[in-house]
Each structure stands twice: as C-alpha cells, then as structure tokens.
Amino acid sequence: TFELEDLARLGGLGSAVRRHIDILVRRGFKIRVFMPSHGRHFSDEILRRFSLRFVEDFKCCGVRKGVDGRDYPYCIGAYEGSFGEVYVTLFIGLDRETGMILDTWDIYSNLPEKVSLMIRGLKCWLEHTDERPDLLIGHDWHGGLAASFLRIMFEKEGLSIPFLYFIHLISGPSFPYHYISSEWTGFPLENIRVWRGWRHEYVNIKDLWDKYYGNTDLFNIDVADAVATVSYGYSKEIIGRVGEWA
User: In terms of pTM, does the model score above 0.90?
Assistant: First the structure.
C-alpha cells in the first residue's frame, strides 16, 4: 500500500487499509505492510509510535537503464517497525537520488518512480528473508503493481500464492512496457499463469501488458486471483473493460 492511517495518509485509502488490517488481525492473520517511507522515518513521533529501526543488514543497490540508454543508479535501505501484531517495512533511499523519490513527504509525488523503486526494494527483500506469505493484498494500482510483481516472483519459485487486488479508485495510468521491464522496474520476461474463468492459461508478461496498452489497473486485474472494489459500479466497469469472465 502507499497509505496507512497514522503512518502516511492523504485521503481515504489510509483509513480503509487500516480497517482492512484490523479485520484480518482479528481473524488471526499475521500481517506485514510494505510501503515507501514517504520520509516518515524523519519524524521522531512516527519513529516512536511504530518502533521503527533501521535494518542494518539490508542494502539494495543497482542500476536501472532508461529508455534514453543512460544508467540510473539507485540504493535502497529499509526501516522496520510494528504496531500491535502488525509488522511494517518502509523502503528508504540510501543515496540522494533515491531518497529524493522514496523519502519525499508528498505521498504521490513522482509516483511512477516511487512504485518502481519500491518494487526494486521488494525484489531485494525476497533475497534478504526466507519469509513467504500465504496471501498477497495490493491496494490500488501502485500497491497492486508491487503485489503483481511478488506473485510473479513467487510463481518462479514454484509457489502458488493468491493475490487479492483491492481497488478503491480506478486511476491506473498507462506506461510503455519498458516501465515494468527488467531494465527499469524489474519484472522478469516470463510466461505466467492467468485465470480465464474456466482454466489457467500461460501468457507472456509483455504480451499481457501490451494487451491493455500498459494500463496498470487492467494488468493487475488480470494477474490477480481475486478483485475487490468499493462499489458495485466499479465492479461493473471492471467486468465491462476486462470481460465477463472476471
């Protein structure tokens, strides 16, 4: 997610995510929330409230290649904390250029790049820990794209972990394939299983992305195993755009 009440919130998403978490905890789920830091680790109050600490042994550095052919280095670190029985992992910048994106206080500033670097951080986090979930939940296109990435990476490991895509606002922008590619965000160029209402089909990730002209919402819906929305109207709109099989 990109919002969580009491940590980083702009609109209603942060409250909805917090309510969702509270319900899951009451049902016995153990939760880990992944977010960009949005600079919240600079706040002493938030550090105390969430018992945030710098993860000393986590460092994620590399180079992304832009459409202009230039190299764009990044270096990502993490803070870890908790509230109640819920764990929180925040991805931060360890250099100036990465920090200008991940640590910007404005939650939705330079949003495509925040999403891309968060996913890079998640890729390293998978290598950092052997912890694997039973369920993935992604909220709106930015959290959903990160969850889509995780679902695909887990499938490469031979794990079938369901992904619930929760749409609060249909707002997914469209990007050329290079945006999610291994050169920029880190999605592997693989064939993945997608559900077609009566069977799974293997589809190339690039073909799936291009099928929806790079629309992030529609891509996430197709990768997801289940979709939840906040209104009947959204449900009908999704079915209309994706197909009756949804």
Answer: yes
pLDDT digit string, tens, across residues 98-109:
999 999 999 999
Residue 167 CB: number of other CB atoms within 10 A?
25
Cα separation, 220 vs 144, in Å, equals 6
Please give the Cα distance from 55 to 14 (Å, whole number): 24
Q: Cα(11)–Cα(25) distance, rounded to whole angstroms?
A: 23
| Token pair of 106 as six digits | 């404005």
Spatial CB neighbours of 236, under 8 Å, sequence gap ≥ 6:
none
CA atoms within 13 A on the CB side of 161: 20
The first and second tokens of residue 84, run together, are 């109640």
> Are the C-beta atoms of 98 and 125 separated by less than 8 Å?
no
Structure tokens, 138: 């992604």
Query: Which residue(s) pair with 201 in the sheet?
Result: 194
Of 85, 105, 116, nearest in space to 41 by CA: 105
Residue with tokens 């919002």: 3
| Region 181-188 average pLDDT | 97
Helix (H) or strand (E) holding 94: none
Segment (H or E) for 64: strand 60-65
Q: For 6-48, how does the pLDDT look when each residue is reduced to its tens digit (9 = 90+)?
A: 999 998 999 999 999 999 999 999 999 999 999 999 999 999 9
39 sits in the region (left: phi over 0; alpha: psi -120 to 50; else beta) called left
Other beta carbons within 10 angstroms of residue 99's beta carbon come to 17
CA distance linking residue 172 with residue 218, whole number of Å: 8
